[in-house]
Amino acid sequence: MLSYRHSFHAGNHADVLKHTVQSLIITALKEKEKPFLYLDTHSGAGRYQLHGEHAERTGEYREGIGRIWQRDDIPAEMEAYLQVVRSYNSGGQLRYYPGSPLIARQLLREQDTLNLTELHPTDFSLLRQEFARDDRARVVREDGYLQLKSRLPPAARRGVILIDPPYELKTDYQAVVDGIQEGYRRFATGVYALWYPVVLRQQIKRLLKALEETGIRRILQIELAVLPDSDRHGMTASGMIVINPPWKLEAQMKSLLPWLHQVLVPEGTGHTRVEWVVPE
């Protein structure tokens, strides 16, 4: 299925969490001079117009990045991410939201490389245009999970793999587990960052159990909920599952999430979570 367009949801609370974690991982990898690979299995269009038809139809960005980007009390953990957002929005107006490929592009160094994959024909065309002049980037229209076979391990034996599917199908939940197993067999020292939505809590419980059963160690769960769990239709929370997280990430997110929850959910509903699914 190719109906999902992230342009309807760009900049929402889930993006804020996902891209903050992404930025912290990239920043940690840059502490060593050796180059690394950024691999994005579901890249999207790259850049999103927040005053376009799609984003305005849902208005989700107003309760996400719209509540944060101009505050003067930003925690240090969010600075790298927000600097990228601000670089695309001058004059005090929030017009564009940079997706994960653009965040990676701005944070990576000359010696690092990007491997970006998108299947949707319109989004792929937009993504390819964004990176037409970036020699560090390889942009392909292909099933992102196949990249976990063909592009791993990277030559430098360092990298972060962002897996961010639309979860249009129930089979997507098993597909991410299979994809991680495939990548991990080839590149066990890589950092794997998996985004997930909480629509039905039982789906997430099954996902976590399936990841436990892979035998992979060092699996950290980071979650931000804006509403209590519900059996009604709609996303109440989202999270990141990080395999081989940088050593500071757990403490960074434990410090940041209370502030982020307070700003994004002033009414106080929902919860935050940072805990090990499988420890060392």
Describe this structure in words.
- It catalyses: adenosine(2030) in 23S rRNA + S-adenosyl-L-methionine = N(6)-methyladenosine(2030) in 23S rRNA + S-adenosyl-L-homocysteine + H(+).
- It is an enzyme of class 2 (transferase).
- The active site is at 164 (proton acceptor).
- Monomer.
- This protein has helices at 13-29, 53-58, 79-87, 100-107, 121-130, 144-150, 172-186, 201-212, 249-264; strands at 37-40, 47-49, 96-98, 113-117, 137-140, 159-163, 191-198, 219-225, 237-243, 271-278.
- The chain is an alpha/beta fold.
- The chain has a single domain, classed as Rossmann fold.
- The strands form two sheets. The chain has an eight-stranded mixed beta sheet, with helices on both faces.
- The N and C termini lie far apart (37 Å).
Shape: globular
- Please indicate the count of domains: 1
What percent of residues are in strands?
15-25%
Radius of gyration: 17 Å
The helix-strand sequence is: HEEHHEHEHEHEHEHEEHE
Lateral strand order in the biggest sheet: 5-4-1-6-7-9-8-10
Number of strands: 10
Uncertain runs with pLDDT below 50, 5 residues or more?
none
Distance N to C terminus = 37 Å
CATH class group: Alpha Beta
The CATH architecture can be named as 3-Layer(aba) Sandwich
Give the biggest beta sheet. Answer: 8 strands, mixed
Category by helix and strand content: alpha/beta
Work out the helicity level: 25-40%
* CATH homologous superfamily label: Vaccinia Virus protein VP39
**How confident overall, as mean pLDDT?**
93
